[in-house]
């Protein structure tokens, strides 16, 4: 019996053929997010672009991903996750070639935006594919599979600076774009062959999804609000303060529209009712503000003030990668959420405080220690927030809800970019790093308190009693 046939009769299982493409795709976004951290300086020098301009390579992917993640999730909910997943992988393949055939900063920026859009299809599609397969097989989703996505994404994000530094030192900065090609190609081929067709998706309860469910007006309002906010935060000039007003107006319009739309892009009513899910989004925003401030701010400071090269800066963050991966694996089957989520804010609080005491003359062992401190909470936050999301999100909206979780992450990234810009207005300095450390400590400390007082973070026993696949029924 084939895997698809077995799945539709409820007698199959989650095989390695199904799991392989589901795990590969979601690593593309985090690895592209983190590899660029050590490439900004080489790209700036090679293409003769100012530091204030090259930062748009980070911001462009942030903005594209923050908008595209829930959009792709919505498309996956409506048209089927496999279709959306495959289209996204094709976009990534095209983007990987672009900077290598067009040696210009505009090509690099376009490639980053395309990578942001293409890779954004993977995570929400993967979550929907898993939920659909769970319902087909009439079995609960293995916690290890959900943790596997977190571990794969977390590990590649943490390894990104190390891999990026190594590739740049051997092949040049263009190689961090080429690395997408084999990964996307493997995910594309295996998904075509081994992932069940969207035609075999379990029926939903309620109305059948239709094209009108996309809500283009909601998407435009959401994109406009994020874009105006991002432009202001990356420039932080008095003459651009009007963009804050634009953001507020667009957010108000989005809320008004969502409350009156039958099929809203951002379901404000659901978020208002589902306080647990809304708090999960907020925790993710706060935690990843600290993670990305460390990843990008610390990396720039190591190169610009402490005097290390791009590949050395990548290897200095190796303890972050190792401990993040090890922690993710250790808690892969953990069902208790409160303690890991409290620690995911409390531990980087200590790291933020230590940043205040670093100088360009600090010994290498101290830099490695600070990097190591930020590794453990990344593993804790990634796995535990993923499990919280899967439990709390409505089954019929899992794609959109998963995409919104990534938007929360990128909002944290966007805010961290603004904080880094304030800390390093012209070049990385010790005093700027100290200010950044204070900001990190305050924000991640708030995340720890939020997790501590959240009544929705239940015990292991109650978590196991929750059914997976609510809102869906098998054909």
TrEMBL record:
Superkingdom to which the source organism belongs: Bacteria
Entry annotated with the keyword Flavoprotein: no
Annotated ranges, domain Major facilitator superfamily (MFS) profile: 18-463
PROSITE patterns assigned: MFS (PS50850)
Signal peptide segment: none
UniProt entry keywords in alphabetical sequence: Membrane, Transmembrane, Transmembrane helix, Transport
Segments crossing the lipid bilayer: 84-102, 108-130, 151-171, 177-195, 216-234, 240-259, 280-302, 314-332, 339-358, 364-383, 404-424, 436-457
Protein name: MFS transporter
Main location: membrane
Bilayer disposition of the protein: Multi-pass membrane protein
Subcellular location: Cell inner membrane
Gene3D superfamilies: MFS general substrate transporter like domains, Multidrug resistance protein D
